[in-house]
Amino acid sequence: MTKIYKKLAIVGEVGAGKTQLISTISEISPFATEARSSVDIGKEFTTVGIDYGRLSLDEDTALGLYGLPGQRRFSLLWETVKQGLWGLLILVKYGDGLNLEDLEHILEFYQPHAHGLPVVIGISHTEDAHEDELEILVDYIEFALSGHNLIAPILPVDPRDIESSIMLLELFHSLDSVGDIYQETDFVAGRVADAS
Amino acid sequence: MRRIACIGKLSSANQTQLCEQVLDIFNQSRIFNSSKQIHGIFLVQEEIILQVFEGNQDNIGEAIYKARRDHQIEDLTIIANYSCAKPAFSSWNMRYIRPGGHTSQVHLERIKAELEPHLKSDQAAALTLFRRIFPAPATDTGTTAATHGTARLDQATVIATENTSLDAEQLRTQLLSIRAWPKASQVKLSSPVMKACALMSKGKISYQELQQRCLWATETELTHFLSQLNYIGILVLAPMAAVANDAGVANDADLATDAEQVPASQGDRFGMLMKKFLTNTRLRVS
Fold it and tell me: Do B101 and A139 touch (CB under 8 A)?
């Protein structure tokens, strides 16, 4: 049987919860590239490369989870997971304000609308969020997405919580399963990549 | 307490710059107004920007002075300036709202109703901008102000706000899509909601097709869900005949063809296994 291996790119700024999310979903201990932070970013360690986790659906089918830094200077890393993408999860950290420039670069790089790539925006660290402020942030993001002809779910997420993390996968599954109706067949075919 | 409304244009025509500009202006206004206890509205439609301020007159004056000096805004003009006994938008702070976004049509109607009687008649150019957002009552043919704007953009119509409840009969003649996903605070993202929104966010789909997916146990639940989306202001309805030939429409015939021509592919297998995983995990977690 042909092996199927798809990728979920999880892109976000420092402290957005990429490593934690992968740790919550992954069946294997995430391969993390963490280093002691040299500046005060609110935590001792931070990711300096790709985090990797894996979710086996059966012996021939798996989803790779790739945590990627959100800054443009890491676009070389974004490139490495571009092929065979199942979805693009952008994690935004509540409270730091939206880094619109980074968001724009990510969307420009992956061009989800042109490629029919499912996108979900997760907002982390919302435990103490003021409802009104959170709505403003959602409006911000929605506005930015509309500039890329994108309509995507934007929702608070707790990367430590299995239910919240599974909901993200369910959203991608919903978006992916309707893709065939609307997307060109060549792109759909291109999204299925055999495990190497 | 004073209520002052200003309207102007954003200086950039470039979509990306426009987006950054709007967020920048909004952020600056929000911080300043919050510190001065000014409440109100921040509304953007295309390149037009409308701000309504409520609060102390001197503070508002300062806010407008700052806004006028902002090179990102052109021709900022006061179109209404009057006393009010109590704030109409006190709970909104300086909310960013956008026709076609999540903001309910009811809110937009409320702004229009509030400002309309107080508009200054000697500001012709500014009033033209105002009318682009809120068409004059005489030319309003039953749909809301924002609906006109979105109708032009989407070549679709939105059911009038006054009656957000939809019935199956109405829906059978329409193609459905959404202009945004509902916020988590508006609609619980259950499995059927996710699937229905995923379908409607990707393109236009007929009511019948949505019904055939059996996402809800009863038709009443489906129409209730669609009415909810309509109430929030994110459901877009387009008469079937008008868009039947659109490439983006998923109708029954297309779907039947898809089903016949595309047997279990790798994508299907992956989807099936993912579904199984999600179901099992949900059961385990709960």
Answer: yes
Three-state DSSP class for residue A1: coil
Amino acid present at B230:
N
The answer to whether the CB of B76 falls within 8 A of the CB of B11 is no
Q: A36 to chain B, minimum CA–CA distance in Å?
A: 33
Mention every residue, 6+ apart, whose C-beta is less than 8 A from residue B47: B9, B10, B12, B13, B18
Q: Which residues does chain B have within 8 Å of residue A136's beta carbon, measured at their own beta carbons?
A: 30, 95-96
The number of beta carbons lying within 10 Å of the beta carbon of residue B189 is 19
- Chain B residue numbers with beta carbons less than 8 Å from the beta carbon of A144 are 19, 23
> B132 to chain A, minimum CA–CA distance in Å?
20
Nearest CA to B232 out of B71, B135, B126, B97 is that of B97
Q: What is the pTM of this model?
A: 0.69
CA distance linking residue B225 with residue B214, whole number of Å: 13
Question: Which H/E stretch holds residue A10?
Answer: strand A4-12
- Digit-coded pLDDT (tens) for B111-125: 888 899 999 888 888
Phi-psi region of A34 (alpha: psi -120 to 50; beta: other; left: phi over 0): beta
Mutate to test the interface with B, among A182, A183, A185 (most CBs of B within 10 A): A182
In Å, how far are B164, B194, B220, B234, B250 from B227, measured between CA atoms? 6, 16, 10, 10, 21
Structure tokens at A88: 């693009």
Least confident of A26-35, B20-29, B266-275: A26-35
- Decide: A143 and A151 in contact? Cβ < 8 Å: no
First to last CA, chain B: 52
